[in-house]
Task: structure prediction
Amino acid sequence: MAGAHNCIHTHANFADLCLGQWTKRATITAFAFADIFERSKTKSRCHKFGQLRDTVSLVPKLSIFILFASLGLSPKLVAQTSGSSRPIALRAARLLDGKSDIPLPNAVVLIDGERIVAIGSGLAVPPGTEVLDLGDETLLPGLIDAHTHLLLELSGENAGAQYDDMLQVVATESTAQRALLGAKLGREDLEAGITTVRDVGNSGVNGDVALRDAIDRGWIPGPRIVASTRALAAPGGQFGRLTPEAQKLVEQEYVTINGPDSARQAVRQALYDGANCIKVIVNGNPADVTLDELRAIVEEAHSAKAKVAAHATSDRTTRIAAEAGVDSIEHAYTVSDDVLRMMAQKHIFLIPTDGTIETYMATDFGNRQPTAEERARALANAKLFFAGNQDRLRRALAMGVPIASGSDTYLTIGGKNRGEASLLVLEAYAAEGMKPLEIIRAATSHAAELLGLQNNLGTLEKGKLADIIAVPGDPLKDVTVLEHARLVMKGGVIVKNQK
Result:
């Protein structure tokens, strides 16, 4: 793992001057990286990437420029993300705006710049407008994944060893690998129709902030990112027991808190480092984050208008999270009815990071052929886990708990890239009993509300950002068509068009 750079230049003009002097060399290096990366078929993982700021270390700034330019300057990518100088009209058989129960037939959406200027059925198209007639397709808001790990990819060959594998990533993967991987996976999400993500940790020291900033600056294509920086956790994070010498690795993925004052300071540092939200690992080993600590985190984050996502998988930790008043509880594999009622009363979102039985089987073995005994045991476990998730989700829906979609994808699935694998969570929701319209809202308007982006994203309305996808057929009849976006637009720019 690459350590932090020691040479700090706080003078922005000096950094910008040096950056300009290196631009030509960086561009040449970038194309070399792009060629190698495009031809590589090997699996890669991700690791620490330094914070991206105008006034911090010059060397990381140059490194980020070179690495992201390797993707962003590729002629292939430039072509895919080129926008039109003219207004655009999208025509399709129907439109689901993310809030209405009824599709809009013969839909027309007018886009000027990055925003929607009009929506209607059979709307007249002004002269000089570029028209894209999509035929029997459905227009929807760009999808939102509220639980991603874009800078982490572990092998799906043996899911039982994932924590050991994650520790190995932290100990051995380079900054360049994590940066390039995050850019690659972000592009795959975007091209799958996921135009916004909330990235909730496991990205090294502020790697998600660097990736977010690179995308925002137009260096590379990718989804809008709500970044959390390192997750806050009790000693050990999610690594379990380590030797004293190895415990230093924990701080590369997690910020250890010990008491309410420590928790408050960790929130302040995360916000200073560029976090848009705060992620907390409430489950610990051997100790959990306490209620007093989590209350301090929530109070400090909310005072800065930042939201708090709580990883909680047990009855005890989901109760701590709900009582503390977090904004979302991730996973909640074991949760009681009274906690679900508390979540409904406090409008705490549940993020069900669920899979189908087939998905669980795929991430157990990947491309490896299991023995008959291994397969039988894995199938039994998958059915049991799926049934538990299904029961939890049905109870949550019945009690009025708000649901937002989150994939938690970080294990590889054979034959699918990150974007394609991330959308399988929508199939899981359908298998567990959610209706198509509930699933669509969980991945659009509800997720936008959770992320605090509802004024600009999550629904198709006049004045909102033109993050739009088009899928074949009618997702109200078959929600799996959401996995096959033929057109993807982000901020009025067409990223993908297979029509």
